[in-house]
């Protein structure tokens, strides 16, 4: 497999040192081209959403704009009740993320700091649970939700079905698998001497958990909170199957209503879709580092 | 993406080496009754939630797959043994197309976006300028929900108003292609959209893995006269085994779970010809007016068994080291 150019390539290879200006340029052209290509769908959606429907109807979508405005965004915001759906998303996402982190921290603490016999089994049970396809659970879950009563102040359907609590519950149960896996790996790196010292001082286990281990896990929590917020906010399937009334759905699932309602007006739909993506984009750009490390601490073990 | 305290390369503080797990001398742990109560509650509640909301339904799906039920009255559940499976395999027209499409989905994702993401990661893992910008652009689709990705591609594929047909007619072609309506094309159209998202995911995972890669190995390979491709194939790639396994699992699981994007691009409930997938068939059978719970569950079990093969591989690979 030795090609004539092998020598020059090899000289480029030692990382962080070789410059090789020609290769560098070639690489930049390639990467910039790919990056641009990757942005095209998104930019096209932005362009579509900024044009009034009348303009595109008359001149076609592939045309120079006569005018650009945020009109579709204000229309989608006002006509389809987006503020309401956003609020639903907040009501689901915030408790679900907090619950997931608390639950998985407790399990991770247990499996990583104590030598009980069933630790590995427990950890596997949680990790595997997160990997099950949602469709495998949905039929019995749906039935289960119809059987579980809730008091009126929690749900006006009086059932777990058709209530935000049901969505929060399944998110917590399902997502705690991933977070437990990540947090237990993280907690194993905290020297045991720290909690042993606390034990000698007579600190009970709950204090070790809340006052020693949890604060030390702050970076992992930041990463997981970012990641889980986006995942849970973006989720589409659970509310679709477990919430009957359209107006209780979070914004991602409600988008489907919008599409049904305005399917003839792609400009408005583009605006609506982009609007639902704004919170995740903001979170991503603000917390990019946390987001990516959250994705990768799960994979970095080995 | 500079180093953070939680990058995979440095899971602990640098000064503290990973201690080998010493088992026997760990006895002086005296847990008082309060401690035991706390631990029981701390593990009990999450475990109960997991078992009740995740594992119980998974097992119940298995049970229901041997029954016939219209989903209304619990008393109407009747045990019919393997009939559902026999029906599905022999007498349910969308089943085999769905299996075929799931396999195509897996092969496509494994052969195009996954290697491409690895290639991009390898290109980006050098000190070159703008690398952050390139990474962000390619990773951005991953931040969007699959539903939003679906809507974005909808306005590209739309036969009348979409970008693709607009470009084709601007290029002088008189073909009017219904990308999502044509049963021979629509799966591929959806795969492009899904690959658009998947590439960035793989790229970021691999990039994180490469950061933990010992550069000395690469230098040694270069000194031995290996070229770029040889270095990658013979040195870097094999050394990245843990990340490769994660990527394999992610790819398999994403292919099996594919739902949202097809749901949106296919226009909602009801599998469209050419776009049948197991996940959609399950939903069709349980959500529609005439629910065939037994059918849906049998389909779910087929999906479950395939998934468990992937999950099992992952668990064995991940936990084998610790079990010793």
TrEMBL record, chain B:
The chain crosses the membrane at residues 37-56, 103-124, 136-156, 187-208, 293-316. One of its GO terms (biological process) is transmembrane transport. Residues 1-31 are annotated as: Disordered. It comes from the Bacteria. Keywords: Cell membrane, Membrane, Transmembrane, Transmembrane helix, Transport. It holds the Pfam family BPD_transp_1. It is found in: Cell membrane. PROSITE patterns: ABC_TM1. Residues 99-316 form the ABC transmembrane type-1 domain. Residues 1-19 have a biased composition (Low complexity). GO terms for cellular component: plasma membrane. Residues 20-30 have a biased composition (Basic residues). Belongs to the binding-protein-dependent transport system permease family. This is ABC transporter permease subunit. It comes from Streptomyces fagopyri. The lineage of its organism: Bacteria, Bacillati, Actinomycetota, Actinomycetes, Kitasatosporales.
